[in-house]
Amino acid sequence: MPLPGRSFGGFETFIGGLAPRLAERGHEVTVYCRKALYADHPREYRGVHLAWMPSIEGKVLGTPTHSLLAMVDVVRRRFDSLLVVNPANGLHCLIPRMLSKTRILMNVDGVEWKRGKWGLVARSYFRLGAWVSTRICHGIVADSQAIADLYRREFRVSATFIPYAFDARERGHASRVRALGLEPMGYYLVVGRLIPENNIDYIVDEFARSSVSRRLVVVGGANYSSALHRRLASVASDRIRFLGHVDDSDLLWDLYGHCYAYIHGHSVGGTNPALLQAMASAACPVVFDVIFNREVAGESGLPFSRSTGDLQRLLEWLDTCLAEVEHRGELGRRRLISHYAWPQIVDRYEAALAGFSAK
Fold it and tell me: Do 327 and 179 fall into the same domain?
């Protein structure tokens, strides 16, 4: 769960928005946090109790070791309801299911067993976890309709569709962006982990070949090293800048708010918070053409494929079309407000955690 001034991945961003809003409605909410990821360990954040659990950090063991200890603690505390994110934790859910009366809701997010960063054993484990989740959890939540449809096809289970949410936000002051050597509307932004299925290598290659006048700024890192990371590092330049992981959430909002357009290369997953955050900032969304991204961006999105030259041509056209950029950005903001606003999302989670149908 991200604390003030810090930014993490999609799950952390989502819980950081949902949990305090549930607490504001009078619910007693506890969030389990990975102790190794934070220097400070406060006991409360915006009315939410924080339970800090150790873990063995790395590419593979961080999530399962943390989740195992959290599930044991869940049994001890005897909560009414438990929201679990990531079906990799499916096997761990056996502990509270067998030893407590807690209602278990699993947010399955994307399709982890199709991610290119994992080997065969890990992908098999993730798919097993997804299957187990559908059999032992009291409810399954999909953050996109496409993911709900996939779970119905593959696992013959009915998942409740509840997407992620963001509040629309105006552009902040440009001073912090300028402090990084960037000019407002002078760069395209990419935000995402440096993993194969986010297509950052393709985006960088297409941008490098293009004649666009602006820069490319990539925000994101990874907790392990690979040939992909080394290759991306080798193309870094003044025109293509890698900022790494940005801890400061306010700075990240500034980067979204002042970019010329946001390029979203994610190919595996459902409603991605990075894309929603771009839409919340009225950044023009340029999206990899898969069903998940089409569902979220709707008519505001400009799609591209991995075909050589496709993104290059799109960016070279867009680079001279400020009116189109502003139009698409405003369409995206309006779509976010109508489909991905927090009040309706909290309503649906509140109902699902209580065992009622989410409307």
Answer: yes
- 200 in a structural domain: yes
- Report the b/e string of 287-307 with b at 16+ CB within 10 A: bbebebbebbbbebbbbbeee
Question: Widest CA span of the chain, in angstroms?
Answer: 61
pLDDT at 6: 47
Round the CA-based radius of gyration of the chain to a whole number and report it: 20
Binning pLDDT at 50, 70 and 90, where does residue 155 land? Answer: very high
> Could you give the C-alpha distances from 191 to 1, 38, 59, 194, 342, in angstroms and in order?
18, 21, 20, 9, 22
Q: Supply φ then ψ for residue 87, to 5 degrees.
A: -65, -5
Same domain, 21 and 32: yes
Name the β-bridge partners of 240: 216
Is residue 2 in a domain?
no
Q: Tell me, yes or no, whether 326 and 187 share the same domain.
A: yes
* Number of Cβ within a 10 Å radius of residue 238: 7
SS3 letters across 47-65: CEEEEEECCCCCCCCHHHH
Residue 48 above 90 pLDDT?
Answer: yes
Q: pLDDT tens for residues 227-238?
A: 887 888 888 899
Task: Give residue 357's pLDDT.
Answer: 54
DSSP secondary structure string for all residues of 264-312 = E---S-SS-HHHHHHHHTTPPEEEESSHHHHHHHGGG-EEE-SSTTHHH
Structure tokens at 72: 């044991």
- Rounded distance between C-alpha atoms, residue 171 and residue 173, angstroms: 7
3-class SS of residue 244: strand
The domain in which residue 209 lies consists of 175-339
